[in-house]
Amino acid sequence: MPEFGAVKVSRTLGVLICIEGIDGCGKTTHARELVSSLMKMGFNAIYTTEPTEGLYGRIIRARILETDEGIPDAVVALLFAADRVDHLEKEINPLLEKGVVVICDRYLHSSIAYQGAAGLDTEWVSEINKYAIEPDLALYIDVSPEIGLKRIKGGRRLRSSMENLQNLKNVRKIYHKLVKDNELMMVNGAASFRSVSERILKLVREYLTERGVTRSAED
Ligand code: TYD
Predict the structure, then answer these.
(1) Does residue 24 line the site of ligand 1, with CB under 6 A?
(2) Which atom of ligand 1 is nearest to the CA of 115?
(3) Which of 14, 186, 197, 208 has the smallest C-beta neighbourhood within 10 Å, fewest atoms?
(4) Which residue's CA is minimally distant from atom 23 of ligand 1?
(5) What pLDDT, in 10s, does the model give residues 43-95?
(6) pTM exceeds 0.85 for this model
(7) What percent of the chain has pLDDT over 70?
(8) If 0-12 CB within 10 Å is exposed, 13-18 middle and 19+ buried, where does residue 207 land?
(9) Any idea which fold 15-211 has?
């Protein structure tokens, strides 16, 4: 049984599934759609996201995402890592202990891809996230930065330096490396919304079956 801080986590119960991708890839919509489909099928699934709404997530949004205050990249990485530890302690681990299928919109691999793209050593980024449990399944929705930026521009204003073409190209490159290293499973995000969501649901259902996760009704 892995131990995390003061909380013991039984990984035989819940499942942690992360959805990753560059800005504008559609991961939030797909993560929410996935939760709704799983719930309709009778699974106990919950959506959560990083950065969180907690103390560190709020600092990240106010001081990094909404304004560019020139905070050093290493400090940014540490704040995301702190937010993740807090997220695990307060939300994710208790849900996993209850046997919930937790769908997390961004997690560890976002730090490796984004903070790595900012020029930090990805091994150091992994090291400061040492206490973050590995996701059981991590899906990566792949779109080109051009498509991602077009989708963002259609919706809200651009945020900070993280959302420029060159940066997103660098982020995508690292995500592709993680796919090659079998850390992430890639889904083509340029296809129609419906086919992307069906593909995600199929991969998740296959994983849940393999892990023997039952629907609440079957318990
Ligand atoms: P995003 O999913 O776009 O949040 P929102 O729901 O507010 O649109 O994530 C916010 C940004 O934070 C995104 O550009 C990626 C960045 N980020 C990192 O740089 N490192 C991380 O560890 C995480 C979780 C996010």
Answers:
(1) no
(2) 19
(3) 186
(4) 110
(5) 999 999 999 999 999 999 998 888 877 899 999 999 999 999 999 999 999 99
(6) yes
(7) 89
(8) middle
(9) Rossmann fold (3.40.50)
